[in-house]
Write a structure and sequence with these properties.
Layout (H helix, E strand, L loop, with lengths): L3 H12 L4 H19 L9 E3 L2 E3 L1 H8 L20 H14 L4 H9 L2 H7 L14 H13 L11 H5 L3 H25 L1
Antiparallel strand pairs: 1-2
Helix pairs in contact: 1-2, 1-4, 2-4, 2-7
């Protein structure tokens, strides 16, 4: 399974150096949107509800303490080459959408969203908190966002969709995708 440091290293390779706050939030959004788009997690790591937004402790440790210098873009132990083409495509969609946001803009955005707020349980934004964000809650929140008409990353065509040239395979993949989306939608509606 992919780790947050692998995704963080991939982000560095695409964007060069970014500050720690933005790196954490971009990695978080890669996880959140992969959950919403595929129903599967991208990253095995959990994210904690820190004051400045979701943080992967493993990525925080590696990025803050294990690198060779403040502006280094090499995260020790990271293996971005383990990412599949499909995973890279999803991360790229997240970077296209959120990559130009400043530190303050991206922190403000995650502070406005339910997964972080729910994990904090009403604590003030500046209070220390290491509660985990629920992956099911992330999947639910971002899936709803995708269908609510708000500005969200464009869901990429998966590599599998592009690679499949057989019309019957394409039709089956589309039908299966729709089944999963409808099942998730019905589950979300049942929770309301």
């Amino acid at each position: 399974m992919i780790r947050a440091i692998d995704v963080g290293q991939y982000i560095y390779s695409k964007m060069d150096w970014v500050d720690a706050w933005r790196l954490q939030k971009l990695t978080y959004y890669a996880q959140a949107w992969t959950l919403a788009w595929t129903g599967r997690e991208l990253i095995e790591d959990d994210f904690q509800a820190w004051p400045d937004g979701p943080v992967s402790p493993r990525l925080h440790q590696a990025n803050k303490f294990d690198r060779d210098g403040w502006y280094s873009t090499a995260i020790p132990g990271a293996h971005p080459e383990n990412l599949t083409d499909e995973q890279r495509t999803m991360i790229d969609a997240v970077l296209d959408h959120y990559g130009d946001l400043s530190k303050d803009e991206i922190v403000e955005l995650v502070h406005s969203e339910d997964p972080w707020k729910i994990a904090r349980g009403g604590l003030p934004a500046e209070a220390k908190c290491d509660a985990m964000l629920s992956k099911a809650g992330m999947k639910r929140f971002y899936a709803v966002q995708q269908f609510s008409g708000v500005d969200v990353p464009a869901q990429p065509r998966t590599v599998q969709d592009v690679a499949s040239q057989n019309p019957a395979e394409k039709q089956l993949a589309t039908m299966m995708g729709n089944c999963f989306r409808w099942a998730d939608t019905l589950e979300l509606l049942a929770d309301r």
